[in-house]
Design goal:
The structure is a homodimer. In chain A, helix 1 packs antiparallel against helix 12, helix 4 packs parallel to helix 9 and helix 5 packs parallel to helix 6. Chain A starts with 6 loop residues before the first helix and ends with a helix. Chain A contains twelve helices and 13 strands. The radius of gyration of chain A is 22 Å and the shape is globular. In chain A, about 35% of the residues lie in helices and about 15% in strands. The first copy, chain A, folds into two domains: about 120 residues, Aspartate Aminotransferase, domain 1 (Alpha-Beta Complex); about 250 residues, Aspartate Aminotransferase, domain 2 (3-Layer(aba) Sandwich), CATH 3.40.640.10. Chain A is α/β, with parallel strands linked by helices. Chains A and B meet through helix 2, helix 5, helix 6 and helix 9 of A and helix 2, helix 5, helix 6 and helix 9 of B.
Chain lengths: ~400, ~400
């Protein structure tokens, strides 16, 4: 059987066969092709009513009673447990709160402290989203470590007896490259160091397997593939057997064993709550909790399968429509090395993206020359993909 | 002219003469006497519609475009500038984001770094809300300083050539005592150290005068007297002439001079933005921005005058209604030493507060033996105060 030559017709067939296609109805969407869910996920349809209830009834009527009666106080752990299966973690190891940057700081400092005396070097992904590098530099400075930027491929040879911790990205924010979390984690452990993974571009996009692969600590954001809303709080994973040794550099009262005891001496809580700091931002947090309900009955494995089909199809459509050499994919072709986005390099990427957005295809631009397209299987279909590639070709032409 | 003997009649007269009485209509309130605005402020009436717009239109329709078109990106500085006049700061010195605990960490570490070599001691208010003490301990540990807890009264004699920074509360969270910010700041400066003030219980309750009194750094929460909603983001003040030396321990990408340059080398932004860290929690933040509109046309000085009248009247009603010795006020009688709350000590405070709440008078309990009543002049009236004291007397009887 020969491959269909008409991508539009093929898209129709793929959409008709897509078991996840109906999930699109769980979101507020219009006729724009939204390929920026790797920056800000679309709005789940039931979230506005839930947020309205939090504001009007929980805050407006119950007021202070909501800390207990509406479950505000326990939200960070409860929502953490809702995220946990999406990243392959058993309950009790994920807590929600603060920004990704703040959580990177907690995780990295805690990892260095776990490594102990004699280990005074932090390895950081040299291609990382910048904030991880900036925060790693501060964590190194404040723990008396040296910071050594290396590419993920160089990590195995860079590891040594001095290595305390390694901060890596599961998926590169710019290229969409998926790094080998199991192998790199094993290498870090073989060197006696601790692995901290940034899951911003993989949580909700593909299986992570934190428990299965023995990851030590991980952080991730919730406003990309988890659709939690603009700036929704990040999450922190601390493997259960390390929680007793998690020594936070931000020991706020929410992480105290007895937060309302109001004692001057700090005593850390047990479990995931040890990663908390101050009062949680309830509106953002409960919007996230509502948003996570779109995952009811959805497996990350099915999402991953569709994600690969979408990015495969996009690359094929681009190959079909866009003149050779006009753009170059910097996203790996191999499935094992690809996240849920496609990054195309072209010299005038900034201008091209503006025109694309003007024509209803929304991706984003990353300096200096990358067009970034994120594929969120919960609400992006194959016809969207075909249209995006077609409009891209017209825009580039 | 003799003082009226009937507190209920007096309350009516005081309410009739209250120029701020009409502000109550700006809030969603019921027949409960809400004296817990020092823990969670009441819901401003126009906030639900504004939050709904942020969710449905800004997030749901504009999506990623809102970072620019809806002013999301600049919200931390813009809202900081709205808070600034309420704490006596000129524009460009306050930024909103993160929790109070996280901001205490930023401010204290930055203060120690400003103090420089040879100054290796941090003084912290020994009676502080615990989180400040826990975070100060971490800041001390991570900057190689000793931490020395002292009462605010002991600060002048504890200051010396080793003192790097002093972390103080403007108003004590438990007793409601107002500390002498101008005099203590001057003493800290005379010793060559830096003053960090926690304004959680004074911002929005009384004039602070940050610029006037030369405060170096300050933090505060926005969900108490500023009514920003549960866990709304905190604020950080860095005096303008110190901003160039503000060396943050949490240098996230939002504080970079060129955040979208995606450069691996960190270069701090100028101005208040240097205090930012990661992506701001937009829903919580824009709810706060809307909430701050209740301050339109309202002066903090007028609020302070009414606050003192309310707490005076409450103490008088308690004296009238409650048998001598049944409760003891731990809030100073002198206006210059009183914040906007009254704290009453009684052995069975925990049980008493539960009964009070059951009867529609909402304050809170602070272990081990304190009944806390906060007075928010924007929506609490004198009849509320009389009723609270009367119900308290009945509850205690």
């Amino acid at each position: 059987m020969s491959e269909p030559r008409d991508p539009a017709a093929e898209a129709g067939k793929l959409d008709a066969a897509d078991a996840l296609a109906a999930l699109r109805e769980r979101f507020v969407l219009d006729d724009v092709v939204y390929l920026d869910g790797n920056s800000l996920g679309a709005l789940p349809a039931h979230v506005p009513a839930r947020v309205a209830d939090v504001v009007r009834r929980q805050w407006g009527e119950l007021r202070i009673r909501s800390w207990e009666e509406s479950g505000w106080w326990t939200a960070p752990e409860r929502i953490g447990d809702r995220i946990a299966p999406l990243v392959g973690a058993a309950a009790g190891q994920v807590v929600v709160g603060d920004s990704t940057s703040v959580n990177v700081f907690k995780a990295l400092v805690a990892a260095v402290r776990m490594a102990g005396e004699g280990r005074d070097e932090i390895l950081v992904d040299a291609t990382t989203f910048p904030t991880d590098g900036y925060i790693a530099e501060s964590a190194a400075r404040m723990t008396g470590c040296a910071l050594r930027p290396v590419t993920p491929a160089e990590v195995p040879s860079a590891l040594g007896g001095r290595t305390a911790a390694v901060l890596l990205n599961h998926v590169d924010y710019r290229t969409g490259r998926l790094h080998d979390l199991p192998a790199l984690t094993a290498a870090v452990h073989a060197a006696g160091a601790y692995a901290v993974w940034d899951l911003c571009h993989s949580a909700g996009a593909l299986p992570v397997g934190l428990d299965e692969h023995g990851v030590d600590l991980a952080v991730g954001c919730t406003y990309k593939y988890l659709n939690g809303g603009p700036g929704s709080p990040a999450f922190l994973y601390v493997r259960r057997d390390l929680q007793g040794r998690f020594d936070s550099p931000l020991p706020g009262w929410n992480s105290h064993a007895e937060p309302f005891g109001m004692t001057p001496a700090y005593a850390p809580a047990s479990g995931a709550a040890r990663g908390r700091v101050g009062t949680p931002d309830i509106l953002s947090m409960l919007a996230l909790e509502a948003a996570l309900e779109v995952w009811d009955g959805v497996s990350v494995e099915a999402v991953r399968a569709k994600s690969l089909a979408l990015t495969d199809f996009f690359l094929r459509c681009v190959g079909e429509y866009v003149p050779d050499g006009r753009v170059e994919s910097v996203t790996p072709a191999a499935h094992a090395e690809r996240g849920s986005q496609v990054a195309l390099r072209c010299d005038d990427a900034g201008e091209v993206m503006k025109r694309l957005i003007g024509r209803g295809v929304v991706g984003d631009f990353r300096a200096p020359d990358v067009l970034r397209f994120g594929f969120t299987p919960l609400y992006v279909g194959f016809a969207d993909v075909e249209r995006a590639a077609r409009v891209l070709a017209e825009t580039l032409g």
